[in-house]
Amino acid sequence: MNEPIPFLDVVGVNSDVREELDIAWKAVLQHGRFVGGPEVGMFEEQFASYCETSECVGVGNGTDALELILTALSIGAGDEVIVPANTFAATAEAVCSAGARPRFVDVDPSTLLIDPDAAGAAVNSRTAAIVGVHLFGQMIDVPRVAAVARRHSLALLEDAAQAHGARYAGQRAGSVGTAAAFSFYPGKNLGALGDAGAVVTHDRSVADRVRRLANHGCAPGNRHVHRERGRNSRLDSIQAAALSAKLPMLDDDNRRRSALMEAYAALLPASCAPVAVSPEAQSAHHLAVVRTAQRERAVSALDSAGIGWGVHYPVPCHLQPAFSAFREQLPTVEKAAEQILSLPISPTLGQADVARICEALRGVTS
Question: What is the pLDDT of residues 69-89, one digit of tens each?
Fold first, then answer.
């Protein structure tokens, strides 16, 4: 009998760097600076360099990262922020927590990423920013979305929580907007051992304000002076150490993901077509998402074969009860939500695993 194939093998991914993680943990235990230790600054420098930006600020999680960017840019009450409806709820949560209003827009029918034309049509006198969500590992159509932002003098913010290492026309995720928010949740391509996040930017003033806001609004070098109302959202030393241990493996891991997606594209039945990747994009393939008109049958086939699966996301943001005040009619994302299915993808998987997954789906017909 075949062994089960998990949707995500976090244990296997971390076992590849077990020795490095043990060394990092012992080092943090020895110096005892669990908050604000030297590992934090080291990782910030490494990740800024990796993202090809000049600044990185480690924070508590990816949701905080996006909210802190919005607050640092003084985007809040009375402002609208354009958000693709096909995203995790955290994107809209951050906008609401900053005091602004999310304006949900539809997505491109092939990539399921933000539709630049829809974003342009949604701009009004209250619009302050566009959040480009690099979903499933693929970056948005950067030139077209950036053109909308420039034309209307809007901030372009990157939600890069699923795009560690991705590129578009050679530009790295995190380097194309005003600022970018990353999550290092354990299941990400670059995952911590718990919650963690970061803000990257080319703008030193934005980074400085994010750092201040994330540390209770304290003035640099003086923890007794609070220049504004901030919050507590800091990257822990042990998480920074773990991320530094795993960062050198990221590009190789992404190449393994890419090879797995090529195998999926070659072996999947026509009834389960992978979501398109733009010719200009180099996806990080955080998720292996297919579309099928027979999702229930596909899920049943995977369950019977002992294969894990997911759906990202079955209820679009604009239809979530939490955001009912911002409801729109967005037919493309609503149709896609009924068809999308995420298959296992991880650096620990092999070509034989992909072949077995595709064989399980062979009986699913359109």
Answer: 999 999 999 999 999 999 999
Q: Pick from 201, 240, 189, 181: which is nearest to 43 by CA?
A: 240
Helical (H) or strand (E) element with 40: helix 38-51
Q: Are 220 and 22 in contact (CB under 8 A)?
A: no
Q: Which two tokens stand for residue 97?
A: 């927590």
What would you report as the CA-atom Rg of the chain, rounded to the nearest whole angstrom? 20
CA atoms 39, 163, 262, 282: torsion sign: negative
pLDDT of residue 219: 80
Q: Left (φ > 0), alpha (ψ -120 to 50) or beta: where does 62 sit?
A: alpha
Which residue(s) pair with 101 in the sheet?
A: 80
Residue pair 114/105 in contact by the 8 Å Cβ criterion: yes
Neighbours of 4 (CB within 10 A): 10
Q: Residue 364 has what pLDDT?
A: 84
pTM exceeding the 0.85 threshold for the entire prediction? yes
Residue type, 15: S
Structure tokens at 19: 């020795």
Beta strands in the chain (DSSP E): 55-59, 80-84, 101-105, 127-133, 155-159, 167-168, 171-172, 179-183, 197-201, 218-219, 222-226, 273-274, 281-282, 288-291, 340-343
pLDDT at 182 over 70: yes
Residues 6+ apart with CB under 8 A from 31: 37, 38
The DSSP secondary-structure symbol of 36 reads: S
Angstrom distance (rounded) from CA 352 to CA 80: 48
* 273/289 Cα distance (integer angstroms): 8
Backbone CA torsion sign across 261, 265, 270, 273: positive
Q: How many other C-beta atoms lie within 10 A of the C-beta of residue 169?
A: 14
Q: Which two tokens stand for residue 309?
A: 């699966």
